[in-house]
Amino acid sequence: MSADKTAVVILAAGSSSRLGYAKQLVHFRGKMLLQHSIDAASHFQFCSNTVVVGARAHEILEHTELKIFSAVINEDWEEGMASSIRLGLKHAIDKVKDLEHIIVLLADQPFVNVQVIENLIAKHIESKSDATFCEYNGVVGVPAIFSKTNFKALEQLTADQGAKKLLKDQNFKYNTVKFDQGTIDVDTAEDVMRLKQLE
């Protein structure tokens, strides 16, 4: 698994409707949540680095240091997460024709860091499976890595389907790596309060 054939996509297009303002810009330990994901992924110098924004795109980008990342605006963000996955993957493939892997991150998991991504990559290399997900509190989810054998399935996601839809396919082979703090994300004001207590 080489960095020059691996892309990373950060999904940051949601409207944060339950919170009432952009959760991507919630501060935690001196920086905004989206910035945490960008900074962690920038450590690796992947061949393609994309942030998919949608709702409140200009506000979010105004306050974000993209570093090595390119931002693409998902005009169809109201469709749900699937549209951002499709757009991010298309942007990566357009840039790197022989792309072999894509890593998907979210903008609201404050404890995603370099070590979490390294653990995910190591497990994916070791297992040689088609996909590797993080697992937290019995839940399988992102961050995740997908090999090119899954690109077509990702391109066919619709509505608010995340990549976890693939898990329902009995022929889908995947592995997981523990990420206990992956349970901590931000959707509501109560989530923000709990996060502040962890600073």
Automatic annotation (TrEMBL):
SUPFAM superfamilies (alphabetical): Nucleotide-diphospho-sugar transferases
Pfam families in alphabetical order: NTP_transf_3
Residue intervals of the MobA-like NTP transferase domain: 8-170
Annotated PANTHER family: MOLYBDENUM COFACTOR CYTIDYLYLTRANSFERASE (PTHR43777)
Protein name: Nucleotidyltransferase family protein
